[in-house]
UniProtKB/TrEMBL annotation:
Pfam families: DctP. This is C4-dicarboxylate TRAP transporter substrate-binding protein. It is found in: Periplasm. Transmembrane segments: none annotated. It comes from Fuscovulum ytuae.
Length: 360
C-alpha cells in the first residue's frame, strides 16, 4: 500500500508538473514585428533576401525551437518607409526591422559608406562582403554607432553587385561623357564628377521616367538593378566598367523591440541576420550574372570599356579616399582607420587596385 509520505510526494510532483505546463502555456506568445524597405522586393537583391530568406527563416526557427511564434507585417517598396527614411523609421519604432542602403544616409552614416570612397575595388561580391565585414570587425565603432546614435542593432550587412554605367547614348571615352547628366545614389556621385559628367542625385524608383523624359541621360548601376527596373528601355547602352561591388546595405532592428523579445527568440533573429549577411555575396554574384544575361536577352547594347579608358577614370579618383578620410576625421569619426583597413583588407584578399590609394 502507498504510504501517506509517498502519496504526498507524488501529489507534489503532479501539481508541480501541472504548474510548469500551465506556466509554459501562459508564457508562449505570438510576437508581431513590422519589417520593411524602401526598395521593392524582386529587383533588389537585399530586399529579396529579406523577404524570401530572413522573414520565413525567423518564423520557422522560432516556431520549431521555442514556445513562441513570430508574425511579420511586411512593407517593401516604400509602403511603410522610403529609401531615405528607413533608418529613421527603425529608430522611431515605426518599423521594428528595416533593410536599407546606407548610401541614402550620407550624413548620418557618412563613414559606413566607406566602400564607395575607394572605387574600382573588388569585382566579386563575395570578396567585397568579406572585406567589408573584416573592417567592421576591426573597427567596432561602425557597429556600435547604430545602437549609440540611432537606437538600433545591426543584424547583418548586404550590398550591391558590381557597378557599371548605363546610358541613353553610346560612348567610348571620358571626353564623350563630359557635360552629360548621369544619376547615382549619393556617395558614388563623385565618381561621375571626376570624369566631367554632371552628377544627379536620384533613387532607383525614379530612374525609368527620368531617363525617358531627359531629366538625365544615364545611371551608374549594377546589372541586376538595371534589368530589374527596366532601365535598358530608355537607356539601352550598358558599358562594363567595374567600379566594384559595394557592401553598403544594412538590416537593423530597433533595440527596444529586440530587447522586449524572449532571449531565445532574440538569439534566432541574430542568427538568421548573420546568415543573411553570409549569403549576400553569392546571391549578389548570381544576380550580376542574371542581370547581364537578361540585359543581353532584352536587346541592350553591352560593351566593355577599353582598359586604358578605365585606367584613366581610376586615376582621376586617386586622391578621393584620402579626401573622404580627412572629411570623416574632421567629423570626429575614425575615417582614416576605416579606409586604411578597407584598402589593406582588399589587397590582402588578392585584389589588385588599378591605382594606389594612400591615406596619411
Amino acid at each position: 500500500m502507498m504510504t501517506a509520505r509517498i502519496k504526498g510526494r507524488l501529489t507534489g510532483l503532479f501539481v508541480g508538473a501541472a504548474a510548469m505546463a500551465l506556466a509554459s502555456s501562459v508564457a508562449a506568445e505570438t510576437f508581431t514585428l513590422r519589417i520593411g524597405a524602401g526598395h521593392p522586393n524582386g529587383p533588389t537583391v537585399y530586399v529579396n533576401d529579406t523577404a524570401n530568406f530572413f522573414v520565413p527563416e525567423v518564423k520557422r526557427r522560432v516556431a520549431e525551437r521555442t514556445e513562441h511564434e513570430i508574425e511579420f507585417v511586411e512593407g517593401y517598396g516604400g509602403a511603410i518607409a522610403g529609401v531615405a527614411d528607413t533608418l529613421e523609421a527603425v529608430e522611431s519604432g515605426l518599423l521594428d526591422i528595416g533593410a536599407f542602403c546606407m548610401c541614402f544616409e550620407t550624413s548620418k552614416l557618412f563613414l559606413h559608406n566607406f566602400p564607395y570612397y575607394a572605387p574600382f575595388g573588388p569585382q566579386d561580391s563575395a570578396q567585397a562582403m568579406q572585406t567589408v565585414r573584416q573592417v567592421y570587425n576591426e573597427v567596432p565603432w561602425l557597429t556600435e554607432a547604430f545602437t549609440k546614435d540611432y537606437g538600433q542593432v545591426l543584424l547583418g550587412l548586404h550590398g550591391w553587385d558590381n557597378y557599371h554605367l548605363g546610358t541613353v547614348e553610346p560612348w567610348s571615352t571620358l571626353d564623350d561623357l563630359k557635360g552629360v547628366k548621369i544619376a547615382g545614389a549619393g556617395p558614388n556621385l563623385p565618381w561621375l564628377e571626376t570624369a566631367g559628367t554632371v552628377p544627379v542625385q536620384s533613387a532607383l524608383p525614379d530612374g525609368y521616367m527620368s531617363m525617358q523624359t531627359g531629366v538625365y541621360s544615364g545611371w551608374i548601376m549594377f546589372p541586376s538593378g538595371y534589368l530589374g527596373f527596366k532601365f535598358y528601355e530608355p537607356a539601352p547602352n550598358f558599358t562594363l566598367i567595374g567600379f566594384g561591388a559595394m557592401g553598403v546595405n544594412a538590416l537593423t532592428m530597433n533595440a527596444a523591440s529586440l530587447s522586449r523579445l524572449p532571449e531565445d527568440v532574440q538569439a534566432i533573429i541574430r542568427e538568421v541576420g548573420a546568415e543573411y549577411e553570409a549569403a549576400a555575396g553569392a546571391n549578389l554574384n548570381a544576380a550580376q550574372e542574371r542581370g547581364l544575361t537578361g540585359l543581353k536577352e532584352a536587346g541592350a547594347n553591352i560593351v566593355e570599356l577599353a582598359p586604358e579608358a578605365r585606367q584613366a577614370w581610376a586615376e582621376t579618383m586617386a586622391g578621393f579616399p584620402a579626401r573622404m578620410a580627412a572629411d570623416g576625421d574632421g567629423r570626429g569619426m575614425p575615417a582614416s582607420d576605416v579606409l586604411k583597413a578597407y584598402i589593406a583588407a582588399v589587397s590582402a584578399a588578392g585584389y589588385s587596385w588599378p591605382v594606389e590609394y594612400k591615406i596619411d
